[in-house]
Amino acid sequence: MEKIRKAVIPAAGFGTRFLPFTKSTPKEMLPIIDRPTIEYIVREAMESGIDEFLIIINESKESIRTHFGNNVQLEKFLEEKHKKEELDLIKELPNKIKVEFTYQYQQLGLGHAVLCAEEFSNGKPFALLLGDDVYVGNNNVPATLQCINAYNETGSTILGTLKVRDEDVSKYGICEPFDMNCKDRLVKLKSVVEKPSLDKAPSNLAIGGRYILLPSIFKYLKTQERGKGGEIQLTDSILRSMAETSAYSYEIDGRRYDLGSKRGFLEATVDFALDRDDLKDDMIKIIKDRASKI
Ligand code: G1P
C-alpha cells in the first residue's frame, strides 16, 4: 500500500468570523501563544510522518509563505547576536520540510480548494488537514497519524471524526455508519452528508477536519455540482466516491479546539499555556486571580 507522505492544507478562506483582524492578516496566522495556528497543523502532520506539504492560499496570504520560508536577514542578525535558541526556532521548519504553495483564485468551497491539489497529489493518497481544527492527540499520537494508521489498516478513504452534540450537527459533515451500534473507533461508512439539519442527520459522528483521501477523489471533484451553501462540497464528492471505493470514519482520540470560533481560540490559548513549563504557573495565577474577582 502507498505510504502517506503528503499533506494538503487549505488556507485560502477569508476568515470572516475573525474580522476585523482578518482584514489584513490571514486567520491561519492568529497565534496560539507564540506560533501561528497553521504551524500547529503543519507540526501535527510532520509528527505523523508527512514530509511534503501543499498549502493552498490566495494573494492576500503571502505572510503564510513567509512564515515557512527562510528569513535570511533575521537569521544573520540572530547569528551575530549569538541567539542560538531563537535561530533554531526560526530555522527548524524550513530545514526539515518542503512546503509548496498554490493559489485558489475563487472561493468556491472546500471541494474546489482540494481540487487545487491534484498536481501535488501526483496520483498518490494524501492527508488533508483543515486549519480550523487543532488537535492534541491522546497518548502522544497526533490526530493525522491516527487517521494514517486507520488508512494503513483499510486502504480506504478515512474521515477523522468527533462526536458532537445534537445542536451542533448542522455545522459539520455527518457520517452514516453501516453498523449504527458499532462502538469501535474505526467504522465502515454507508454515507456522508454535509451540514444536515438535526432531523436529517444520520448520527452525531462529525467530520473533524482530518481526512486521508485517495487520488480518485479528483475525478469526482472535477464534476462536482454545487451543494450546501452553493459551494462545491468535498463531502458530496466523498459520498459519490463511496460507490467505487469504501470509506471509514475514525473517531479521533484527543482534545480538539475549534479555532474557527472565538471560544475555541480562547480555550486553546489557556490549555496550551497550561501545557507549557514556562507558562503554566503564570496561567494558573491569572486564572485564579480573575476567578476570585468574578
Ligand atoms: C468543513 C467541512 C465539514 C467538516 C468541517 C470540519 O466545513 O465541509 O464537512 O465537518 O469543515 O471543521 P466548514 O467548517 O469549513 O464550513
Tell me what the structure shows.
This protein has 294 residues and is of the alpha/beta class. It folds into two domains: 6-260, Spore Coat Polysaccharide Biosynthesis Protein SpsA, Chain A (Alpha-Beta Complex), CATH 3.90.550.10; 261-294, no CATH class. Helices cover 35% and strands 24% of the residues. The chain contains eleven helices and 13 strands. The protein has helices at 37-46, 62-68, 72-80, 84-96, 110-115, 118-121, 143-154, 217-222, 234-241, 262-274, 280-293; strands spanning 6-10, 31-32, 35-36, 52-57, 98-103, 126-129, 133-137, 157-163, 173-177, 186-194, 205-213, 247-251, 254-258. Strands 5-4-1-6-11-8-12-10-9 form a nine-stranded mixed beta sheet. It has a two-stranded antiparallel sheet with strand order 2-3. It has a two-stranded antiparallel sheet with strand order 7-13. Strand 9 (173-177) and strand 10 (186-194) form a beta hairpin. Helix 3 runs antiparallel to helix 4 (84-96). The longest helix is centred in the C-terminal third of the chain and has 14 residues, at 280-293. The radius of gyration is 20 Å and the shape is globular. The chain starts with 5 loop residues before the first strand and ends with a helix. The mean pLDDT is 96. The protein binds 1-O-phosphono-alpha-D-glucopyranose. The site of 1-O-phosphono-alpha-D-glucopyranose has 14 residues, from strand 11 and helix 9. 1-O-phosphono-alpha-D-glucopyranose is lined by residues 110, 130, 132-133, 172-173, 194, 206-209, 234-235, 260.
